[in-house]
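Researcher: Next entry in the queue.
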Amino acid sequence: MPKLDLKTLDYFKNMNYSTYIDSLTNVVNRENIINYTKELVANGKPFALAIINVDNFKLLNDSYGTHVGDIVLSQLASIIKDGVGLDGVIGRQNGDQFMICFHGEHSYDLIHKKLKDLMDNYIRAKNDLFQSLNISVTVTIGCANFPSDASDYDTLLMKATKALFRGKTKGRNCFIIYVDEKHKNIEMRKNVEITTSVMQEIHNITTNPKKSLEKKVVESMAYIINFLSLSHAYLYIDGKVMFKKVKEGGKDFTLPNFDELADLLDEQGIINVNNYSDYKETRRSFHMYCAENHIYSCVIKEVTFAGQRLGYLLFADSKIKRVWQQNDRNMIAFLAYEISFLLNK
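Model: Structure for this entry, 345 residues:
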């Protein structure tokens, strides 16, 4: 796809290339992408602002080194430029975060189409470029429109950031378009604050003396499903389903072979599956189980009491391949802990 010549835009036409281009990624540098966005707002020119964040970039740097991180950022910037083409200007907002100004008025459906195309046909489709590094790169995108969502730069940025934050709580590797009714009350808090708040709510549910055992477990499952935007939750005890919560319209899962997966449990007693295709060669039957049940990603947590395994909790997403975070795992592990005590009162 042809790329936009920045010199055709008034903001850049009298500037030297080296003063407005980020030397690593060859997109507009932080100062000028922010100033350009502010100029569009000041001149009342409609556009959609998208913020792209590389998922788990710190972990990538810590695991492989900053030189690999630099390669990822450089290649990803090139992929984004190919995907955006003539539609807008791309800049590097900070270390692992990019901004796109999609020029012109955008309905929800139009920006959804553009972001879906960028994610599916460029960022995800070009992931093979990173295979030589033996890593998979995913991103989360938040987007808001000017002037329909905000009349000033700060509010516009805040709303796009709220959408990005929502995408991260949904499991990353997705895009969210700001909608006031859905996102205006989002509080952008630190992960530890979020996890603590969720654990407290789960504890409140499981210790409510007015609720039955079934209500305590199912309502706790539902809380995590809604918070993380998942589709299914099951509690398996003694090899059969004890309780479950399935989002409306979802189909029941069959019982997985937990014995086959026991050696995959980590020190927390958890298996988190970001992409079931990773098990195609090493765990063929589990790969087939996920494919047949349309499980794109899942977390399996053993439920134990006094050192004895009682069963398993399974939380799954039938919509996207998630990038599970430690705080997601901690929420599910905490529920397993609470359930173990409920079952042994």
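Model: The chain has two domains: 6-183, 191-343.
Researcher: Noted, moving on.
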